[in-house]
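Predict structure. Chain length: 110.
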Amino acid sequence: MATFDLLQTTYTLVSHSHILFICKEGGKDVGFEVFYEDIEFALGDEWLIVDSGDIGQPCYRDPRPGYVIYDAGRKTVERRGVTYNEQATQGKVRMVGLPELLIDRLNFGR
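Prediction complete.
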């Protein structure tokens, strides 16, 4: 709730938490909505925090980088994921010496 008290706009878009979510302010409580892929989520008058996930090491069991399209005119957000060459990326990460755990996670998210 304290976060909502600090916001100055109805919709706040964030990222890099590694988790996809839509958080709604609801009086003395907050609630979380499932943020389905490729389905427009209509934005109303409620105060929201929308998290698009991240570009690497996602925590939502999907290895694809995630992003959100915000349409101010239609008042919607839509979550998307993109594919990339995971093996090539893993090779590059391995070359710089990062832990195998981080490299392996690129196959499935966590």
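Summary: The two ends are 27 Å apart (CA to CA).
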